[in-house]
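Readers of this paper often ask what the protein records in our data store actually look like. This encoding replaces a full spatial description with a residue-level series of whole-number codes. For reference, a complete record is included directly beneath this paragraph.
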Amino acid sequence: MHATIIPIYWMITKAHLYDTLLALILPSIAFAIPISVLILSNFMRDVPNELFESMRLDGCSDWAMMWRLALPMTRPAVVTVGIYNALGVWNGFLFPLILTQSPSTRVLPLSLWTFQGEFSVNIPAVLASVVLATLPLLVIYVVARRQLLSGLTAGFSK
């Protein structure tokens, strides 16, 4: 991922997206696709084909099969992929450092890095901001703990 910084910077500047949130979103999506497809395709293989066939015989469309069958049966994988990719984006530092400049487009880790002073560091303030920055992740973990654990341990029962 870090080996692509120069080509991504070149493409972002040529597309006139430098210092925009879209400059951070597009590479994040591109880097998240391979692992997401790998995890979700393995989960989709575990859903029995008979269920899809019976829904097709009942007259269900492809979108209805996805929303009513595939998504509920693969919810642990979707939650796992979502949390895994969100953590990668949440902890991103190098791409926002290279692809943004203004304070309005800074992400949280970059803002925490610039929170320090020029000649000194207010350690209690920095640590308090780090604690506040971790609270949303802790809340997401508490809410989605069951799906995350079942998604991470799905392949071990076979």
About this structure: The domain at 2-157 is CATH 1.10.3720.10 (MetI-like fold).
